[in-house]
Amino acid sequence: RALVYILEEDEDEEEEEEEVSEDKFCFNRECHHDFTRESNYRPGWRLRNGDFADLCNRCASAYEQGKFCEIFHQRASGWTCCESCGKRIHCGCIVSASAFMLLDAGGIECLTCARKKVSMGPNLRPPPSFPFQSPIAEKFKDLSIEWRSSIRSYRPPNLSSPSILQCALQYRGDGYEFNQPTSRDKATAYSTETQRGMNDLVGKLMSVNSNNHTSSILYNQKAGPNCKAPTCPNGNAYHPPISFKEGPLGAQRVFPVTTPTETTGHLGLGGRYLWHKANSSQLSHLHNDLNSGADSPLENKSGNIGTHLDTPGKYQVVPRYSPKVPYKDQVNESVSVVTPLFEKILSVSDAGRVGRMVLPKKCAEAFLPQISHTDGVPLTIHDSRGKEWTFQFRFWVNSNSRMYFLEGVTPCIQSMQLQAGDTVIFSRVDPERKLILGFRKASDAQSSVQETDLNNNRESCTKVDAEPIDMHSTMGKKKSSMTTTRSKRQKIEKGDISEMKLTWEEAQGFILPPPNLTPSIITIEGIEFEEYEDAPIIGKPNTGFGSTCSANRNLLAEQDDEEAKDEAEGLLMSPNSTSKHPRHRNGCVCIVCIQSPSGTSPKHGRRCSCTVCDTVRRRRATLLLRKNKKKQIEIESKAHKELESLNSDEELDQSANNSGNTSKNHEQRHVPPSKAQIDLNFQPEKDEESPPRSNTMTKDKSLRHDETSFNPS
DNA sequence: TCACTGCATGGCT
DNA sequence: AAGCCATGCAGTG
């Protein structure tokens, strides 16, 4: 907390400075072209506050061509030669901050040379041909400036291990509020702006974390409290265990990063999604200071005053994307270190048959190759078993933005047996620098959440509104229906499976028939099925529904309360269902929709006993029975008519012959000959459809729907 | 008829 | 208000 308030203090000062620095001139001091009345300025390098430097066309062109420093900073200090090719790089300048990498042994290397040594990974900035966005790196470099300004002299002697920062970040990431202290805290903080205060802070962080986040420490075993962290011979050296840049678990030791061109072409992390200011920023300061030494390549000489602290809510990993659970094989004891990059909870779309997994934009831009064409690039990812998958990493242009997704994930997802609600975890293996795709089943997340809840430590990350899913409140209102669906999805995303489970059980109760209804028993293939003619509509009790058949729920979608039924369908959707058929409604579990993409996995067998198949069989049998019954009735009816007409003719004849004997004929009329034995008062429709009468239409429609939706074949 | 594709839409952050 | 992103949907083969 001491750290927090120190930083907040700096933030205030810097905000003031930033206001002063605003102008309408070209950001390049050497140019300072006045475009106050112009609008044709262009974005240049990214500023520390997340904005971009406004440059005139000339300067922007120079920047985009990577010649800005050559042109404008030729006389400035800080030029260093690439250790490999000797190319001069203007180090220590924000403009070129992304154009080089710091070497373990000291010195720098231009990206062109670095790319030859890097096959993959966000930390070691690869070349434009296979670039990774790492604007976070810049952020943390930037943040180091503020950190030093506040606690420049502090360097805890025994806290060089990155685990401290990881612990701290984990502690922070799990919901501890640093940015909203009580006044008492604040007073304490200000009074302890000392090294002891910092020790307390770090010690506290470690203490809490070690008590409550064993997993997070295990997450990076090499960097754990008891590990022997590699000592950096150079403060700027690459430090594998702390290599990953972000995440509540991760230390933010980061390295170059984006070239100017890349940055402009690929906007990188706006920060809003991944980072929140108050948490990672301070800790990243701490981290930078602890691990990178006093100097930073961004010991900035530019006029940029803004800091990441200027924008509340910025630089924290959004929980749903930050890796949360240790990956099983994260640390290969001998060599490899697995660095979680980000994770994604699979949506229905992601896990569906379309085979496209939407990626969080910020994460995609931060950790995956830069792509400039919508066709994207193939991306090879290994799963946890070492199997290699190649996806197409692409994007769509969407509302002046991009929507990133992986294409062709279905086989992989099926291989991992993942469903909507499960989580895929993108990680990187060092030093191989392979991308690997781990996963966490929703059921695992549940236990994880429970565990952390016990620790009372993840509340702000995982706690969601405990509003029960009120089916009634969603009736007929698309918006509320959607809201509930979203809410439900969020519950899944946040791992609140326990609530979902409860709701599911409640939903099971919804589809149970009312006790006052007696089912008709139908035996199909030796199995007895109960068929209710007036089963309840989910969320709308006591309303005729046809049957519990899921297809009938689809039928109801055609009626007034379709939205509520959608909701019910969504709620009832089997976790094993894959995706929706394009023409089926949300949560449809018809035989079409539950089938996996064609050819990719076995379809339901003829003797499959799943609910849907049972339903299909039952409906088929019902249809058949009724069809036969109707046919029989028609035949009988026809026979009766013929008989009647025959009798009528006979009667006429008799009447003609014996006009006085009417009473006898009348009697004959009411006592048909035994040959026919047909009740002339028989009304096929009425008999067949009673009881319940009110449901006639529903059932008819239901049958039709069954025929179309389930397509039994 | 259905899988695939790419864009559009709209709730949500 | 802007942007993200889950999902819908129309066009195409």
Task: List descriptors.
single chain, 713 residues, alpha+beta, two-stranded antiparallel ribbon, 15 strands, elongated, DNA-binding
Description:
It contains 24 helices and 15 strands. By secondary structure, the chain is α+β, with helices and mostly antiparallel strands. It has a seven-stranded mixed β-sheet. A two-stranded antiparallel ribbon has the order 1-2. A hairpin with a 5-residue loop joins strand 1 (42-46) and strand 2. Helix 1 (2-21) packs across helix 7 and helix 19 packs across helix 24. Residues 1-22, 118-317, 325-333, 447-514, 532-604 and 659-713 have low confidence and may be disordered. The structure holds a DNA duplex (13 and 13 nucleotides).
Query: In percent terms, what proportion of residues is strand?
Result: 5-15%
- pLDDT averaged residue by residue: 50
Structural classification = alpha+beta
Determine the fraction of residues in helical runs and give it as a percent range: 25-40%
Question: What are the segments in which pLDDT stays under 50 over at least 5 consecutive residues?
Answer: 1-22, 118-317, 325-333, 447-514, 532-604, 659-713
Task: For the record, give the distance between the C-alpha atoms at the N and C termini, rounded to a whole number.
Answer: 67 Å
* Largest sheet, spatial ordering of strands: 7-12-13-9-10-11-8
Shape: elongated
The rounded Rg comes to 35 Å
Tally of alpha and pi helices: 24
Number of DSSP strands? 15
Give a short account of the largest sheet. Answer: 7 strands, mixed
Organism: Eruca vesicaria subsp. sativa (Garden rocket)
Protein name: Anaphase-promoting complex subunit 4
Subcellular location: Nucleus
